[in-house]
Each structure stands twice: as structure tokens, then as C-alpha cells.
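[job 0412] stage=fold_complex status=start
inputs:
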Amino acid sequence: MYARLPDARSETIAVAIDGEPFEARAGDTVAAALLASGRAAMRSTPVSGAPRGPFCMMGVCYDCLVTIDDAPNQQACLVLVAPGMRIRTQSGPVALAPPAEGV
Amino acid sequence: MAARVHDVAVIGAGPAGLAAATSAASLGLATIVFDESPSPGGAIWRALTTTPLRRPEVLGPDYWRGNATVRAFQAAGAEYLPATSVWAAARRGDGAFDLGVTGGRHAARVAEIFAARALVIATGTLERPFPVPGWTLPGVVTAGGVQTLLKRSALVPDRRVVFAGSGPLLWQVAWQILNAGGRIDLVLETIPRGRLAEAMRHAPGFMFSAYLARGIELVRSVRRRTRVVEHVEAVEALGAERVRRVRFAVDGAWQEAECDTLVLSHGIVPNLHLPAAMGCELAWNATRAAFEPVADDWGGTTIGSVFVAGDGAGVAGVEAAIARGRLAALAAANALGRIDAAKRDADADAPRKAVAHALRGRAFLDVLYRPADAFRRPVGDTLVCRCEEVTAREVRDAARAGASDADALKVGTRCGMGPCQGRFCALTACELVAEERGVSPGDVGHPRVRHPVRPATLADVAAWPANDVAERAVARDASSR
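[job 0412] stage=fold_complex status=done
writing structure:
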């Protein structure tokens, strides 16, 4: 539900969102990249399972928590995208320790 | 322990923090700045040095005016650590302050303790809670959130876009979205009937305000291009997986509109978490319906050598923020014995005049844009606490059952105990408890805020020195040990 302005000046950065390749832009936060990819929700709550997406975009509301490079519960609106970054949306409560690679 | 003690640590690199750091460094103080953003400017000048927007007219001249302040800061020689969060601050034995600082994932990760003899807290504002049914649905976003997407990433909402609320920020963001070529289908303005007349009592001051001409032009420009419904007294976001429709009432008559992005704004309130956790006294401002730090006219809080500056000290706009940053730096330099009172007072003359100029007419805006009671004191199933999903009914029931303040609410309902640490529910919770008890929110008080005020890892916490803050955090009764 967000469109990039056609005259925007920025290089593309390849990331993976839920295993699918996506071209974000330099300067995007992870939350901006997720919204640009067409997603509205990035997680569901541990309390009721309700879907949530970015609300404040400035690190206050914690509704954009996602898993970034296996680290869960990262504030997507405060982290800039980096080449090769693996971003995963979250469902309900997530484990405190990330699973080992390949598990 | 921190090896080096700075003279001044500035927390926040918006207008106030940048001005404070520039002044402090220019006075020869060893100055360090911590800021959560990857680039300087705070919210108002967000992404000033990195924005991908090509056309400067999209954001308007007030945005680009930030370049002068940022350049002066870059030339002043203060140390600058972007993309870092201060998660704790406390006075230690020698009178200096320990600062727990943690880096974002996009910076070199630091688990470090810094130290400084004086603090300028310039952590700005956050958006006032807008607790209406459906405000947690994906697709519902704050005006500041939409503005961040535009400034940092050149993203604009497409499909059907509805703005709801009131205040300068709402109109400014709407204007910028339209300038960028984005669309806005509908603006629901929530100023209650009769409020303009009430605000007009403060109009004589406002007539001389720089806001007047700019504000009127901006609102007119949006109105020419968008449908505006006035005196909206209720707003509801409807949808399951995301917002699909918005429902709203004027004079008791309900209407509905299709909606893919609902932008909410009832203005901004001071971000108090760091000063509150340090123990700075807060006071209720009834006109603005917000808590503010108690501070003298230098920004000095109730803790010695801890200053607040900018909108975090009370919302007054960018010019006042810059001036208050300078005043705080002057007072800090004097407190550290680096300039005498005569120089402090002489140098304070210009920023004091700037503050007075910026505050002229502010009362008009404070009264006009204070949200109607119904938008601040929800009822029924409307969520108050987004994190723990606590409803207005649960909060009111707990208050009626004896929860006399926001801390008692936490025990009874978990309201305010989620990851946002009450940032989006504290005001609402205080107002609901106050209403149920028939007292002022000031009597209820701001909920207690504890360190860490930002997410910290075990490595961060382990680096913290064993001082009284650490003891209070882990010991049930430190005095009995």
C-alpha cells in the first residue's frame, strides 16, 4: 500500500524477506522495506495473535518487531537494510534463543 | 568503567541536541552526542543529509533550514555517535553520570559505559496516543510514521488514504504527501465545536506568531486538494487483517469510507522516559494534557547538572528548541565552572529572546489542538495498552476497584508492562484513572519508569558498574543487606 516515488535517488540493496528475494533501497529501514514489499503486517501478537504492522516508525511502539539474521524481536523501524540481510516476519511469541543454523 | 569523563553528554541529535552540542563544544567543553537515528536532525529534519527525495519543494523550506544547524554542529567538533541508544543514566560517587549506551545493529555494536559531568536530554517527543477502536490494525499509522517513510525512503501511501486528527503535524504531513504526488482521499478533523472560540481568547498573541501565515497557507493548500470533514467526534478503524474502512461520526451521525491507510495524529507529547527513569520530577500541564519535566528557564531539572531542552521539555517548536539547546549548554558550562555567570547571562540574551518570540501565540495552538476528551479517555473495548492488549473497560474497572495510580494498574491489568514500557498508554491510563477517581491526572502521576529505558542485552547490563542504580534494580531492599 506504499509506492516509491519514481524520481527517488537511491541504489538497490538485495535482501530476503521470508525467504523471497526483495530489492530494498539504500537508506530504507527494515520496516520501510517490508512496507515497500506490499506487506502491512509484520508480526502477530503474543497475547491474542492479532496482526500488527509499523505504527510509529520511530522506535516507540514496538509493533514492527521482526527477526533479522536470526535475531528475533528486532525493531524493524530502527535497523537499516544491508546487503544479504535475512528478514523474517514473526508469529506470536518467539523463542528467546535463535535456532542454530540449519535446524 | 568509562575511561574518560566528558564534560557534557547530549542525548538526541534533533534541533535542541544539535544546538546544545554546538554551543557546548564552542565553549570548549568536551562534548559527546548520542542519537538513535543513523543521521542527524531528529524527527523534524529526519534524513536531512541522506533523503532520496530529489525535489526540495516536497518537504518545504522549514525542512531544509535544518542544514545550517547540522553544518554548524558538524563544524563544532563534538563527538557524535549515531545509531546508539542510551538505556540508562545515573549519578555515581564522584558526581558525574554513568551512561549505558548500546549500538544499533547497523552500527559497530557497543556495550559501553560512558561518563559525563553534565547531561542535556534532548530526546524530543513521541506521538500522543490516539486510542480509538482499531488503532492497532496494520495500515493504521501515525502522521510522523508516514512522514518518516517519505523523508527517509521516498515512500508514499497509495490506494485510499484517510487522515484523522488535528494539529500542525497532521496538516504538514498531508501537505508534504500531496506535494510528493501522493493521494489523500479524506481528512477527518477532530477539533470539537466551540473550541475555536475558546482558543480565540489567545488570538492576540497568535496574530504576531510566525506560525500564523505559514499554518494558514498550508491548511488552505490541503483543503483545495482534498475533502475535509470537520468536527469529527468519533473515529473507528475497521478490518480484520488490516484496515479496510474507516467509520466516523459528526453530530451523532455515523458515516463510513473505504480506507487502506489511516493516518492518525493528535500532535506530539514530550518523550520523558530517560528523565523519568533518572528521577527528574514531572508535572502535569492541563492545557496541553501532557506531563512535562519540571525545569527552570535554563532547562535545569530537579536533578543537578541534568538539563532538558527542545520539545521534550515542553512542546514549543523548532526555533524554541534550538534556543533552549543553547541555554542548556550555557547553564551546563556555568555549572561546570567553565564560564562565569556574567558570560552565561550575556550569551543567553539572544536565545532568551528567541524563546519568547517562539512562545508567542503558542497558547492558541495548545488550546485549539488539545484533543477532545472522548479521544483521550476511551471507553469499552478500545485498547489502551497496545502491547498487553488491555482495554479501556479493564483499566476503568481496575481504577474503580481501587487502583489509584498507573503503577497499581500494572499489577492489576499489566497495562504498561509490554515492550513499549508505557510510551503509548501512560497518558491514557493516567487520564482514565483520574476520571474514575474524580481527580486531576497530575494527582494520579506519571507511572514509574525504570531502567533500562531502551532494549539492552545482557552484555550491556553486565558492563554497568555496581552503583546504587544497579543495586536498586536487583535488590529488594538494598538498605537491609
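[job 0412] summary: The helical segments of chain A are 30-36.
[job 0412] exit 0
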